[in-house]
Design goal:
Distance between the termini: 70 Å
Structural class: alpha/beta
Number of helices: 23
Number of strands: 18
Helix content: 40-55%
Radius of gyration: 30 Å
Strand order of the largest sheet: 2-5-6-1-7
């Protein structure tokens, strides 16, 4: 492999990658696997950014009439000469991505779907003048691509029958049954659920799929991809010979995502073998079937970054590529039992859950168990070992996904506990009046309600920083106070300096982490002694504030101790 090849960040066209000389990790074995064991309709569900769209583009480039065989030179599939001779470039291919089927209202989303189908239909312009079609059939094709004010307009039930009609016309023109490829099949349902027109969209998609995939005599076979395995009863009703391949299935388990060996080769090709441990820590950990795989979007982005900056640190590329509403909903819905389970996940422990692999979008919020299932199928959680009686051992796959849980937990804390008026006012009253016992009780209650994001393997300093950040978030919700962190004063830096509304008052807070409950008292004493010895009150006295309270606060797990002294 040439080391100067460009990395295909954001490029999902197989033809473009191969023609323009981008780096490509060979997944053409999937073609062979599909042809050796396929159903009439094949659904593949994988998390987003795991190469589904690129793989679908590869199928189109392989099967479509008029393809360029040189695109596959040197790739795995080219070794199977008999298969290539029989199938390469032999089929009309209808290829759709439903990623853009979105809208605040059903009619808007339906119109977007019409545009997607119209654009694909217009690729086959040869049908307009085909002598193998009757005039009526040519009129049917013209109806599919008819424009009104620059947009495709499919009146009545034409959209429902559009893929079936196009299949029929292509079959008559080429004398060969059609392949239908539908990428991101479940996006319209996800968007419809979010915007409140789920039933209408389910009815529309069920109608289109029923005509295209169930009652289509001109279909060779179909491949669909998506993130969620929507229950068969919702949109695939009545489909026979319907094959579903999900993240728990062994077959095709290495065809989406990068394997350990593929990542090692990629890093070696760009002379980055020393970066393997951090790539593994951040982007590995997904378990599909019997294969452990990396998120390809992350790996390619990070390698590209390293080529430009050899000191670049890993980033959360997958997490930042789109919203993480699912984790937010999960944290928001969590009861105390679930909060405890989230804490187990954060520290790297296993949580056992019964998982449903097929759901409808409108079932997700019916129970917290359903949200667990969707977190698993969409890649936020992965499995360890084999499930037993439908019970899966779940963990967070890697450091990147842990970061999104931590971020959403912090957001949840800020918006729920910290924004509670009674909590804010109680803390204000306690700190301004020097009520140490009252503060201790309140902070302990808050710790009991929140979700800990402490890594048990972290240094004591990092654990102290966690409590520091939590307390700072609480204090900053009282807008009439000036609250500053790590303030230079006297002979050091005070953890927290508060300037209340009273121009004579000042508050200094020093935090400590205690490894055991027995050490809490001693830790508080060290905190207050540090405030005095390092003269942290200096910055307040320079501001004319001489009525100063010094707080030593020590934390251990979900307990705290508070002491206060007047300075």
């Amino acid at each position: 492999m040439e080391k100067n090849l460009m990395l295909p960040v954001g490029i999902e066209s197989f033809e473009e990658i191969r023609k323009d000389g981008f780096y490509y990790i060979d997944k053409t074995k999937w073609i062979e696997q599909l042809l050796q064991s396929w159903g009439k309709v094949n659904l593949f569900t994988r998390p987003r950014r795991f190469g589904k769209t690129l793989n679908m583009s590869m199928l189109k480039s392989f099967f479509e009439i008029g393809t360029d065989p040189s695109l596959f030179d040197g790739l795995y599939i080219s070794q199977n000469e008999e298969l290539c001779e029989t199938h390469m470039g032999k089929y009309p291919v209808i290829c759709l991505s439903l990623k853009g089927v979105d809208g605040l209202a059903f009619e808007e989303a339906k119109d977007n779907l019409i545009q997607i189908v119209g654009i694909e239909a217009e690729r086959f312009s040869a049908l307009c003048g085909s002598e193998r079609l009757s005039e009526n059939e040519r009129d049917k094709y013209r109806a599919l691509i008819a424009l009104h004010e620059g947009r495709y307009k499919m009146e009545g039930s034409l959209l429902i029958f559009s893929l079936q009609i196009l299949s029929q016309l292509l079959y008559k023109h080429y004398g060969q049954k059609v392949m239908i490829l539908i990428d991101e099949y479940d996006v319209p349902l996800d968007k419809a659920f979010q915007h409140g027109y789920y039933k209408e969209m389910v009815s529309l998609i069920r109608g289109i799929f029923g005509q295209a995939l169930k009652t289509n005599d001109y279909l060779q076979f179909a491949v669909l991809t998506g993130c969620l395995r929507v229950s068969k009863e919702s949109i695939f009703t009545g489909l026979n010979n319907f094959s579903v391949n999900s993240i728990v299935d062994i077959e095709h388990d290495e065809q989406f995502g990068f394997t350990d060996e593929e990542v090692r080769i990629l890093l070696n090709d760009y002379e980055l073998t020393g970066r393997f441990p951090e790539v593994k820590e951040w982007y590995d950990g997904y378990h599909f079937g019997d294969a452990d795989v990396y998120c390809p979007w992350d790996v390619v982005n990070y390698v590209k970054k390293l080529r430009l900056d050899s000191d670049a640190e890993p980033q959360a590329y997958w997490i930042n590529s789109s919203g993480n509403d699912l984790v937010k909903r999960f944290v928001d819905k969590a009861d105390q039992t679930t909060k405890n389970e989230i804490e187990q996940l954060i520290v790297g422990d296993i949580v056992e859950k019964r998982i449903r692999l097929d759901l409808t979008y409108d079932e997700i919020d019916n129970s917290i168990d359903n949200v667990w299932s969707v977190l698993f199928t969409t890649g936020y959680l992965t499995q360890v070992g084999r499930p037993e009686s439908g019970v899966f051992k779940l963990i967070i796959p890697n450091r990147e996904v842990r970061e999104v849980f931590v971020y959403q937990i912090r957001q949840w804390f800020d918006q729920s506990v910290a924004k509670n008026v009674d909590t804010v006012n109680g803390l204000y009253h306690g700190f301004i009046c020097g009520k140490a016992e009252e503060l201790q009780k309140q902070l302990t209650q808050i710790l009991g309600q929140t979700i800990s994001i402490l890594d048990t393997k972290a240094r004591d300093e990092d654990k102290e920083n966690f409590y520091h950040g939590m307390l700072l978030g609480l204090l900053r919700n009282y807008r009439n106070w000036s609250v500053k962190s790590n303030v230079e004063s006297g002979d050091g830096f005070a953890d927290v300096i508060i300037k209340p509304e009273d121009p004579d008052a000042g508050i200094i807070i020093e935090l400590k982490y205690a490894r055991t409950f027995k050490e809490l008292d001693q830790a508080c004493e060290r905190a207050v002694t540090q405030i005095k010895d390092r003269r942290y009150d200096e910055v307040l006295r320079e501001d004319g504030r001489n009525d100063i309270l010094a707080y030593g606060i020590a934390f251990c797990k979900k307990r705290c101790k508070v002491v206060v002294e007047k300075m």
